[in-house]
Amino acid sequence: MIHFDIEKLLKESLDQHLNQPKSQTPFHLDEAIRYSLLSPGKRIRPRLFLACAEMLELQIENIIPSSLALEMLHCFTLIHDDLPCMDNDDFRRGKPSNHKKFGESIALLAGDALMALGIEVFLDSKVVAPRLLSGLKRFLWAAGPRGVIGGQASESLLGAHSSWNDLKKLHSQKTGALFSAALLIPKDFAGISDDSEQGRAIDSFAHELGLAFQIADDLEDTLQDSASHSLHKPTSVLFYLSPLEASQKTLKSLKYTTDALIKIWAEKSDPLKQITQEVIQKIEKATGALT
Fold first, then answer.
1. pLDDT band at 55, cuts 50/70/90?
2. Could you tell me which residues are beta bridge partners of residue 96?
3. Cα–Cα distance for residue pair 167/153, rounded to 1 Å
4. What distance in Å separates the CA atoms of residue 126 and residue 61, rounded to the nearest whole number?
5. pLDDT, position 60
6. I need a surface site. Which of 92, 118, 285, 286 has the fewest CB within 10 A?
């Protein structure tokens, strides 16, 4: 699998777009953007993006900006999710949330700025115009009312009356939309149609991987919460299923869609299989500790 220093590339992209000329971005807004975007993280979405691009034999150097744009979009959602008017979280990745560090108004603007910046950076990709526009449309879909923003809105509707299918629908937007975009934008760049066998295989895999990633997080959160409060939240998979049930349902679907990729792309799918295996191991380890 091709490896890139995502942290270095993100910093270089910020330097290019925020500091030319240096007076263009107010210093405290620049600081707030960098604080969250350059915070240590798994960078799973750009990794997925580049792994899928490698499978589809795209020219990786030409599309790195799009992978960085996806991380900017993800960071925008995290900053806004943490705001007092939303999830009201004081910490993110072990550090004070953006609004706790810079104040609510600057945090809000930093999130807004990352959304706009992501589009600007996305368009730095060197892809023929029709395919670039298809990818950008997918990027905006992932961000909007049918994607992450819609998922955040749906979260307020969950309650004791909600079903497992309601939760899956929420996660398909709030978490899954960006996972899908990470895999479907390279597909758009490669000119693969949604209704082709290849397109359907990538779409199904993206959906199941996004759900698996969320379930892995839910299981790990429960392990870390000594009082198991997450069990009582309608936004947690463990509100609806036991750890073993959640694991079995998820891994069965993920294996099926992974096998479909292997059938089409054989060893070219190895970069995506590697990331999938990381998620599977997280689920199995947490399930074993909880059962």
1. very high
2. 91
3. 13
4. 9
5. 94
6. 285
What DSSP assignment string belongs to 165-208?
Answer: HHHHHHHHHHTHHHHHHHHHHHHHHTT--TTSHHHHHHHHHHHH
Q: Computed from CA positions of residues 32, 42, 256, 253, in that sequence, does the dihedral angle turn out positive or negative? A: negative
Tokens 């379930």 correspond to what residue? 215
Strand-strand pairing, 95-96 and 91-92 = antiparallel
DSSP reduced 3-state for 93: coil
Contact 10, 41 (CB under 8 A): no
Give Cα separations from 211 to 2, 102, 177, 192, 283 (angstroms): 25, 32, 10, 23, 12
DSSP, residue by residue, 119-163: HHHHTTS---HHHHHHHHHHHHHHHSTTTHHHHHHHHTT--TT--
**Environment class of 127 (CB within 10 Å of its CB; exposed 0-12, middle 13-18, buried 19+):** buried
The pLDDT value given to residue 174: 82
Q: C-alpha distances in angstroms, 29 versus 17, 36, 68, 90?
A: 13, 11, 19, 19
Phi, psi of 207 (to 5 degrees): -65, -45
Q: What is the pTM of this model?
A: 0.91
Q: CB count, 10 Å around CB of 100?
A: 16
Q: What are phi and psi of 92, to 5 degrees?
A: -140, 120
Residue 232, beta-bridge partner list: none
Gap between the Cα atoms of 171 and 151, Å rounded: 7
Topology adopted by domain 1-161: Farnesyl Diphosphate Synthase (1.10.600)
